[in-house]
Amino acid sequence: MIVTKNWLNEWIDLDGVSADTLCKTFNAIGLEVDRHEVLRVADGVVIGYVEKCEKHPDADKLNVCQVNVGESVRQIVCGASNVREGIHIALATVGAELPGGLKIKEAKLRGVDSHGMICSSKEIGLPPMGEGIMILDPSIGELVLGKNLNEYAPFHDDIIEIELTANRGDCLSIHGIARDLRAALSHELREINYKEKQEGRLGIGRILQLQHTDTFDADLLFGAVDVKELAVPFVIALRLAIIETVYTTAVDALLLYATQSTGVILRAYPFEKFGDSETKGIITLENDENGYASLYGKEKVSVIGVSQEKEAHFSANEGLAVIEASYIIPDVIAKKMGEKKVPSCPHYYRSSRGSEPKIEMGIRYAGSLFEKYSTSLVYGGNIELTTSYEAPIISICEEEFESFIGLKIDKTRITQIFKNLGMDIGKTKGSTFAITVPKFRHDIVNKQDIIEEVVRIVGIDNIPSKPLVFAEANQMSDDLNGYKKTRMYRHRAAQSGFYESVHFVFNERLQVEKYGFVCTDSDKELLNPITATFDTLRPTLLVGLLNSASANVKVNQKKIALFEAGMIFDTNRNESKRLGFIVSGAMESEKIANAGKPASIDFANFSQLIADVIGSFELVAHTPTHALAHPYVCAKVMINGVDAGEMFRLHPSIEEEHDLAQTFMCEIKTDALAYGLVEARPYSKYQASFRDLSILVSKEMSYERIKAVIEKHRSAQVQRFYPVDRYVSEALGEQMSLTLRFVLQSEVKTLEDEDITMAMESILNGLKDELGVNLR
């Protein structure tokens, strides 16, 4: 948002306020100053009047002008195409120094003396204002010949560019900025005289009517102007150049200027779009094919707050123009544009952020410009369509201000701040304020927003610092413990040679269901997926790890060891934590120790890698429920008797499909993993004894049955046992030899042979009785 000090001064009294003070004030109230530029026309550039203009005798493109500068008439040679008799111009006199270091001297051009230079806007340091020289008019003030231009306010100004946040649409106008300054400086807004005189005017109802059959979230106001002898005043042209606004006609210029000044969105249409000289014009308001509130005459002319049809622009220099002032709720138009995007014009930037809702002020101001700078006839009255608006009321007590801000602010001061910001305050009940939020501040929705308004006007630098009193509550929550637990196992996995892989929580439903996993119920599925390959919440970590392993193989990775810690989701979108692993190809990198030929990963080695991460566990027979697992190389992972997940070899067909070597995967429930304080337990100081027991069992017998019998019959001296060898041969037939190693130890004495023998016999007898097992 670009403003100038003099432009602001038309709306609020800034006499005695320096440009530096103004910039500091803007920054203090949250309107960040992005640029401050001083506009000063050099001394010696004066107002002149071209009394005579003749062609140069020796140059077709030059003119010899006689320019009156008050005390004398000076001869100037000028090459501008728009120089002519009877105009006021800016003349750089001899001795004047222009921007860029150009110093004006006496000169002779093609044999003709020239005593100065008639200037364009760029030559005296102003923004570009079209081709040729500047032509001045009384809009800058009384034109006194020979008077320095810098004695006129438009040529002695400060340009300030403000960086606005998206929620401050109320400050996208000179009036809006002035309204904020009123609260910061406690200066009253100036009254702008734009009240129309009704006497002698034709009423707009004679030529125009509005019809609609539905209600809309928009306010509309229509006026009419019979445009005559309108030229863009110099001050308006200069200010539009300063704010870098481009226009095509004089009507455009006046309406753009009025919009920038008041914040009200204004448009002009040719009356012929709605009627003719013999019939009353009819404006129809209805929704268009895209659901936008639109205006129609003989054809569609505009979408309210969004765009205007090219053919519906008032492009003539004279004629009857219909002027529209509009306001539409920014949330409504922005949401609609998100649902169905349509082409827009520059006015959409204002309407989507919040334009000025006082549309009558805008149309009256525009009418006053037409009357001031032309002989145009402004029709009396307006055609109006407004919607009901119930302003939100936020209640907040005086103590809350002090609690939030840390500073006690006088009740009268608070009341004055909100009054100056244009907010109504109802009759207070005790220490409670009932603040009515105006339509132009749609960004204020809660108490925190109200507090912020007070803080920015009081000034954050004016709030004294206080010692921080902070008593932190106990942060040892379940969420923190869960985070620490996951972090611990992630670190263990990295230390065990795994690389962490991170995926979106989404999978491709087609791929996941192909492998036999159950996805989220269709009525709870994603409404707006990122892409077609991320169209469902993942029910497992395994598919993402498989895809990552496949990608690694394609870049010639020989050893792949990945893990992921993350959430998965069931059919009802309930989430749970999982830890997933995948290892494929070589067990280790190529090195001297393995002669450059590392062994491939197998189930036993993979189990050991997983144990290095999650600790001890048991494997039991398991039938997989999905197609990723090899049906004969699959086991359930048990931790302290609890089902903690599964471990398996990837199905050979899927290995081949993804160009993977022998691959193993595992997915563990994070909740089943141990975490917490490790309690120290006493250990025996007596020597442990080891005994091996080789038994003949059926090849079809599972280790689980053998283990269960041993657990049932083992004595307290048997600390642990585990299989160490499995032997099969033709001589044994359908049986196999299984060797078990037992560790025996007592807490009170060194075990004697008799104690060991009794413990082992108890186990062997139990195996014989229940399973018919014999010693080998």
Task: For the largest sheet, list the strands in their spatial order.
Answer: 24-27-28-32-31-30-29
Look at the structure and name the CATH superfamily of the largest domain.
Bira Bifunctional Protein, Domain 2
Q: Sheet with the most strands?
A: 7 strands, mixed
Dominant shape: elongated
Q: What proportion strand? A: 25-35%
- Figure out the total of helices: 18
Uncertain residue ranges: none
Instruction: Give the number of DSSP strands.
Output: 36
> What is the CATH-assigned architecture of the largest domain?
2-Layer Sandwich
Number of individual domains? 6
The level-1 CATH class of the largest domain: Alpha Beta
* CATH fold title of the largest domain: BirA Bifunctional Protein, domain 2
Helix content class:
25-40%
